[in-house]
Amino acid sequence: MQLYNKLSAKERETLLEQAGEERLTLSFYQYARIGNPHLFRNHLFVTWHEQDVLGRIYVAHEGINAQLSVPAIRFKEFKEFLDGIYFLKDVRLNIAIEQDLKSFLKLKVKVRDKIVADGLNDETFDVTNKGIHVDAQKFNELIEDPDVVLVDMRNHYESEIGHFKNAVTPDVDTFRDSLDIIEADLKDHKEDKKLVMYCTGGIRCEKASAYYKHKGFKNVFQLEGGIIEYARQVENQGLENKFIGKNFVFDHRRGERITEDVISNCHQCGEACDTHTNCANEACHLLFIQCDKCAVAMENCCSEECIEIIHLPYEEQKRLRQGIPNSNKIFKKGRSEKLKFKRPPSPQRGN
Prior knowledge:
It contains eleven helices and 14 strands. The protein is an alpha/beta fold. α7 links the parallel β9 (194-198) and β10 (220-223). Residues 347-351 have low confidence and may be disordered.
């Protein structure tokens, strides 16, 4: 029984190109009580490996968070499998606006402590006691209410390239940071203000809405399906689009364009740009915004130091990476001092 990938990302990319078959990029989540996450993880991996499903999936005692690439021809089979799991029957699937054959190149199903890291250790907090879900039309109506505080529950590098008009965009690196900041900012308005939240696909808002209800907020709402579903409903129903820019996504595309507005800039030259990339130096792997001109001039690197490293022999590069976690978290995702035009930390808690 195969429980791991045998192909490298490059090998998988070649196979996908040769096959040339349509694939669907989608995501879903569900909070549920999973007694044995490891057993459930193995069940998912075996089935999805057989169905040629690729993606990144987190499983925990509190539920599942999945971002996937599914062969279009096998979508019905994939959906029937989900419906056969009692807590995933008819789960909402967020289908990507922009499809990409190579959005994911491996199948990774990992067991985590939580499907959304929150840093909370409060056993009285019930994540299923969530706020009110609203669709795109109701969301548009709500955010025009002067008694509403609209909050972006994503991180700074996500809201930098796109957000809803007049939203509070906390200058944070993690979801956990935003929980305390928003509570502190609105502590005097737990009863008289309506707290309306949004995120990429809804999973962070689901937990945040339950958390703020737990903390005493009386009127808590969340955009159902997040920005992904909002964009779909706006297009299908001819609604006014109140989102500007790009929606950051966590696959190889790194972003879906919602409007033609470019509200951010290249972190190296300052020109208007909203294209994220990772530094070509694998020992760095910094996530930052880079325009096409700088990508050529800097050889897809974030700094002169990284350019020097990528020209070293492979074995020397490998030696330099030893002992260094391959995670851009340590670089604060665009906060590096190497970037001249990076988004400056906000002096306020929202902007």
